[in-house]
Amino acid sequence: MTEYRYNKLLILCIAVGFLAALAIGWQRHGLEENNSRVELVMDYEDITGLAQIEGVPVPELMHQFKDAGITSLAVYETTLEKLNKSGKILAVPGSQLLQQYRTGSMNDPRWRNFIEAGRILPEDVYIVGQDPLTFAEVKSDLLRRLSPERVVVLEEGTAPVLAVKASFEKLEKWNLGLSTAEMKEAAGYGFYVVARPTNYNKVTEDDVDAVFDRLRDIPGVSSLMFVGDEVLGYPDLLPHTVKRMQEQQLTLDMIEHPLQLQFLKQDGLLPLAAANHYRSARVYVIPKDEQPKLKPDEAIHRWVLTDQERNIRVNLLRNYEKPELGKTLVETNLDYVAGVRDALLENSFTIGPATYFPPYFPSALLLALVIFGTTAAGVLFLTLVYPFKPRYQYLLLALLTIGLSLPVLAGGGTLIRQATATMSAILFPVLSMTWQLDRWRANESLGSKTGLGRMLVLGTVGLTVTVLLSIMGGLFVGAVLADVRFLLEMEIFRGVKLIFVAPLVLITWVYLTRYSLFEEQLPLDRAGIGRQISKVLNYPVYLKTLLGAAFVAIAAWVYIGRSGHTAGVPVSALELKLRYFLEQVMYARPRGKEFVIGHPAFYLLLMAFCRRWPSTLRYSLVVVATIGQGSLAETFAHMRTPIFMSFIRGLDGLFMGIVCGIAALIGVQVLHYLLFVLGRRPAGHE
Fold this sequence. Notes:
Elements: H1 8-34, E1 37-43, H2 44-54, H3 58-68, E2 72-76, H4 80-86, E3 89-93, H5 94-103, H6 109-116, E4 125-129, H7 132-145, E5 151-155, E6 161-164, H8 168-171, H9 180-188, E7 192-196, H10 205-216, E8 221-224, H11 238-247, E9 251-255, H12 269-275, E10 280-284, H13 296-309, E11 312-317, H14 329-346, E12 350-351, H15 364-385, H16 390-409, H17 414-442, H18 452-480, H19 484-487, H20 496-514, H21 526-537, H22 543-561, H23 573-585, H24 592-610, H25 615-635, H26 643-680
Keywords: Membrane, Transmembrane, Transmembrane helix
InterPro entries: DUF5693 (IPR043748)
Transmembrane segments: 360-385, 392-410, 416-435, 456-480, 492-512, 541-560, 595-610, 617-633, 653-678
């Protein structure tokens, strides 16, 4: 039997890297603990619209929503359509004016004079000011978005008139700048203001200044949340936008993508966040088509989970459009908002303007030590499948460490850090399972006489140690990617699909170096491994073989399809209910791949060794148990999730896995006993 030695010096190198990972992880934990204030935001138009629907005075409803917990109101750019409805502006197409004149329904002498003087054209749009400030802002923005040649003043005075050369149907939908009146009204009710401007075509510095000049005189503007495909100032004036944001100390709000991976696509968003020294907050909004399907209690639960697990600090709430049973529409929405506020307060959040991470970047030296530890883990793995002399191990370790660390020490190396994180998530679960396999392989006392009680103890202790070693790999992942870009998810972990597959390939390699897949004993050197693979490929195709292959293919489809953020294998209703229950009773819901699949397989694997089950079955259990360990390390790849929550999630999974594993072991033992008893029962005719 080949003896695989665990190089103690390499283990010491891993320990050094682990200490560096712990230091970075502790710094990161402190940042995440201090980033706990959530901003509850609603659209200004949602509240005013609800007031109109329910016949409630706007000031009264505004105060009710503020008392319920809303922190800020989002104010969008105005349009001619909205201003027409509010009576602040009158906008009418020239064709309509001419038609009224011809039919004799034109009573306003001013318009009759314009028409008779030939100053009204059917293709133009005519705008009359009813409110001086609003008219001035509309005129200013039209001049910016069109040109002086297309915007002409027909008449000055108390009710000035503009003639605009544009299509009425399109013009009434155009964004025409932030309304000073709306922002002042929102601030007057005691709300912070979240401004939602759009960019200009061929934007100029004067255009950018016009937006910020309107914001300058509004008290309590907390942040900017851009609308459209571009941020203000894109492509060439982002530095000027940043300058004005910093002058007014504004936070950049970045809306999470509906697939919960990074953000809605807006050109210039990430460069703007970096230039603003990462003064940014992550925003979540329940999709408009999804909210009606959620009961308010379910939506409240989602908000809490979102803020806890994804570092969301701006909750953009929408109104419910249908009342709950026994409540008015106003009561339904006020109770919903108050429920979100109360649930957040119960979970140690505070309510107010969103907090944001400082521009944190860990020490390059600590990062280099983490890379050193991961590299040592990689070299150690190689020695456990293909032993080679220590001096070559150290040479390989030195060359790889120097090559990988130099770019990081020079202040760059983001791709190297991402690769290191991927390797950590792959290597440590495989090393933990390899170590456990070697322990059982060397334990000559394990055999058919090993009792159930001892198996339960050995399984529980072994699983605990194995899980902790896999969590160590997760902490390497959480440390090497720990900077503000990853915490905000401006940069992400790379290789999610790979870390679902690679550990299974590597543990297969490990297994083939120690055991034969077939009952006949083949040599376990490279030639023997090749013969095993050849025998698998030449195995006759029976119906049972096809059924087995189909089962494996379906399992692989589910396993890989459930990874990542793209639409894949759907989650069953039963699993959703189980998730909801675990989220209610546990600090961090453990993953089903761990406590339902991987950890019980670990216990059954121990029984398989003790009972000398067929080698192919033992191999299958090794692979399934490795799935659970790989899931543990992959948990830490979600950098937006607080590192403490990922750690507790792993421990919760261990606890649930022990429960399920013990149940599985006892269940198989009872089944084995029943089959034994039934096998000894005499036939009925005897």
